[in-house]
Amino acid sequence: MNKHYFLLVLILFLSQKSVGQSNCLNSDFSSGDFTGWDGNSGSYGYPSEYSGIITGRQTIISTQAFDENTCGLLPKIPPGELFSARLGNMQTGSEAEELNYTISVDSNNTVFIYKYAVVLQDPGHEEYEQPRFTIRILNSNGDVINPDCGVYDVYAGQPGQDFQYCNDVVWLPWKTIGIDLSPYIGQNLKIEFTTRDCSRGGHYGYAYISAKCSNLKVNVKICSGDSNFTLSAPEGFAQYLWTHNNQPIGSTQSLTLPIGSYVPGDTFNCALTSFSNGVACTSNIIGVLTESVIINPLFNVATTCGNSQLTSNPISFVNQTTFQNGTIQQWLWDFGDGTTSTERDPQHVYLNSGTFTVTLKAISETGCYKTYSTNIVVNNNPIPLPNITDPQTFCMPPAPTISDFNSNGNTFFWYDSPTATVMLPLSTPLIHNTIYYCALLQGNCYGPRKAIKAILKNVKVPTGESIQKFCLINHPTIASLTVTGNYIEWHSQAQGGSILSSTTPLSNSTYYAFEYDPISGCRSKTGFAVNVHVGDYSSLIPDTLFKEFCEEDNPTVQNLFFEGLITIVYDNINSNTPLAENETLNDGNTYYASVYNAADACESDKRCEISVSIVPCEIYPYNTITINDNNQNDYFAIKNIEYFPDNDIEIYNRFGQIVYKKDNYGFNNNWFNGKANAGDIIEKNKKLPTGTYYYIINFKKESLQLNKTKKGFIYILNNE
């Protein structure tokens, strides 16, 4: 059954000729990725369940190899191509994968040509359960544009397919499918490729694909001076039928005919046929014979150095080609030194002197071409090489440019290669480990180029703790600071300045760490700020202290502690062993106390020198006086009264009458020897009669905050 549609789908064995560069973005995966493609994955009955490309289910193939499941016979990339995509994999589980390519159809992409190869396990299930590969052409509504020629479907073991066999695998060699999209110019169409494992989950199916776009037309190649002309249709169709005046004239993709048998204006029709699942799909294209394309290639040579061509000095090739009955599609230049160009009016730099044959080949859009060659003589460049240091190192930031090269006061012109014809602007950013080329200008001639390597050194800013704490007692210095980095320099200012010695004592301040590279001489442009806190609490304690204690209180080290402060006591100014807080103090000893702050674990750098005095804090009066001048019990003796100069004493008779009173008793020979000095009962300085008397003694000591009163009885024996 024949079907005639402007849409065609063709299937045939792959031609050995490449389709050529694609007019559709990355349809041939030439970007090495899936740019321009959409992917889905899912199950046998729902292949678009999950959107997105999944590596392993949609995979770019960039290295040629042979598929192991075809007994090593199927290349993974089709001949003439550099990339392909594998759709699916060798995993089972009733998986399905999709790849979709959307085309905005215009006159440049009216033919979509893709290539595919299929690898399917054949478990012998029912047709609807078998692994399969499907292609559909969909419009913007998601509908198949033609049910006969808009769908291609192949399943494992399908009759009428060109299957090859490897164990339990059936596979199709690379084939080409072409789609005529010319009836859909201005519309968006989607080409949908789908692979499925078997629906039972135990057998796999996958395919390889690649695609290109071109325009659907007859190429008429009729060149001046030729006796024949050539008609070419798009490659890849199953059948071609050429007719002229409704008479068949050929059945190949390309047809060569004698010019003398036809005249300009004659038309040639080509019927293109392909087959989709046994359905013939046909389209027609027409070519018109034109006048012969006439090409007269010509160029002349120009240089900034007058009539002299010099090495390293750019030479301009001015294209003066003329042509008729066509357009020039391509220029091919051969400069005779192994280099070429496709520009219309190129410039070229020769590195060596000598005579070179320069050839220009002009090619029309239909493939006609003609060449022109001439010899040029290139002389050695007499201008000296630039006097400039190589390599040159630049510290970053800021990012250096061409203008930052140290040219020793000279003016140089810069290029990115020894043969570049376009100068680099002075604002061109430098790239690390890149070689640049500079030349002198003398008159209008540029001299030979010197290679200069740019080394960019971006020394990182050190890292670390931005707040660092130390104790003054440990005498911290710059060497005590810690940051991460190599060859660290410390400064007291954010801008740098003089380098601080490692022995510089730290204070409560901010210090800045810079990393330095000794090879390049570069350092980090900014410093890492470290705020330093040096803990010292010496101001909280005096330099020296005298402390007095009562011996009756049995004072210990704890009694030397400063109120509200954690105190550490030593028995020596240089001792590192603290005394236990319950250790008994000794009278007359000197102790050394520091204070400790738990928040920063710092002990004061200073130790307070504490002189300790331990004295009695109680008096013991004797209770008898004998007034007989025998130097025994001749006065009222009070033990320990010498520790309390601030005292007063009063003595009363049994009638409560005061008979003696004295301040500072016991000092300056102030002793009570049985004689009255107060009251009106007994004459002063007269001996008191024998009897019992009552005393009251007040004594105090401000240093110990002591204020006591002692009361008791004393017996006076008057021997008169």
UniProtKB/TrEMBL annotation:
Spell out the coiled coil positions from the record: none
Instruction: Write the protein's name.
Output: Gliding motility-associated C-terminal domain-containing protein
InterPro entries noted in UniProt: Ig-like_fold (IPR013783), PKD/Chitinase_dom (IPR022409), PKD_dom (IPR000601), PKD_dom_sf (IPR035986)
Q: Does the keyword Protease apply?
A: no
What are the alphabetically sorted keywords of the record? Answer: Signal
User: Which stretches make up the PKD domain?
Assistant: 331-378
Kindly give the Gene3D superfamilies that the UniProt entry links to this protein. Answer: Immunoglobulins (2.60.40.10)
Show the SMART domains listed in the entry.
PKD (SM00089)
The stretch of residues making up the signal peptide is 1-20
